[in-house]
Specification:
two-stranded antiparallel sheet, cell membrane, single chain, mainly alpha
Length: about 300
């Protein structure tokens, strides 16, 4: 049993990494009052940008992840221009961005269908990696997995302990009041949306340069939508988002180990399991309206005109 448990738990951390990046970015954007449903599109744009840059430079994820972050942030700025500056419907703009990202990544990715990258080797932390069970799971991962935990810690600290976190919350709760005392509401929202796009781009670049280091059309496979759902599942709390990402990561990775565990379930059902779990979780969470209203930014999705 242990022989199966270790690779499942280790794989869970890797499978959850893109969800952590994309989910944290969307959480920050929504804390400022902006809901961006284009996470899937930004992930795909980041994935193809990261893969193309890594393939052309030969440096793999070292250059692929920054390229993905820049591409994701640029795509987010397109969304921000229409949704914030022009006060267009945020949901419609996000859906349009997803459609745009799917098409653009497929068009650019045609040239890279036959390419593959070397990926990343796990980093074994001395002494800690030799701890039974926990060592191979927690301390033999690639550096991007550790980077996701650092990003989680920084976002959590920023939101809870810094002036910037208070500004984001103020803008998300009452942009009119924040504007009345002199804060640049649109500037803060632009920054939050750009951060969300960069994080989604990193998530996509991780998929294409590390997790499965080759280009496949639509390789995000709905992870962007799961990241958006995770923010609601977490009720806009970073710690709950982290736990939710690992939960969905475990559901995702379990389908690859089900046959080895003797689970006689159709492959199609296992492939659909993460999305079924997403729907079930959202239905359960939405029934508790008090919990949702407790942390829901009051101006989420509402346009603001100075």
């Amino acid at each position: 049993m242990i022989d199966h448990l270790i690779p499942i738990l280790a794989g869970t951390l890797a499978a959850a990494t893109p969800l952590i990046f994309a989910g944290l970015g969307e959480l920050v954007a929504e804390r400022s009052g902006v809901i961006n449903l284009g996470v899937e599109g930004m992930m795909l744009i980041g994935a193809i940008a990261g893969f193309a840059f890594a393939a052309e430079t030969g440096y793999g994820a070292v250059t692929g992840l920054p390229a993905g972050a820049l591409a994701g942030a640029a795509a987010a700025m397109i969304f921000a221009f229409f949704a914030l500056s022009l006060s267009a419907n945020q949901a419609a703009c996000g859906l349009a961005l997803t459609i745009f990202g799917i098409g653009l990544s497929a068009f650019i990715g045609q040239h890279y269908v036959s390419y593959s990258l070397p990926g990343l080797q796990p980093i074994s932390i001395p002494l800690l990696s030799d701890i039974p069970l926990l060592g191979p799971v927690l301390f033999r991962q690639d550096w991007v997995v550790y980077l996701s935990l650092i990003a989680f810690a920084l976002v959590t600290w920023t939101l809870a302990k810094t002036r910037l976190g208070l500004l984001l919350k103020a803008v998300g709760e009452s942009p009119e009041a924040a504007h009345a005392i002199g804060y640049p509401v649109l500037g803060i929202r632009y920054g939050a949306v750009a951060f969300g796009g960069a994080m989604a781009g990193i998530a996509g670049a991780y998929l294409s340069t590390v997790y499965t280091p080759l280009w496949v059309q639509n390789m995000s496979a709905g992870r962007g939508w799961i990241a958006v759902a995770l923010v609601v599942f977490a009720t806009w709390k970073p710690t709950r988002l982290l736990l939710g990402a690992y939960l969905f990561g475990a559901v995702t990775i379990l389908q690859f180990h089900a046959q080895g565990l003797g689970i006689d379930v159709p492959v199609q059902f296992l492939a659909a399991l993460p999305y079924v779990a997403t729907i079930v979780v959202l239905v359960v969470i939405s029934r508790d309206r008090k919990l949702l209203q407790l942390n829901l930014p009051a101006s989420l999705g509402k346009p603001f005109l100075p």
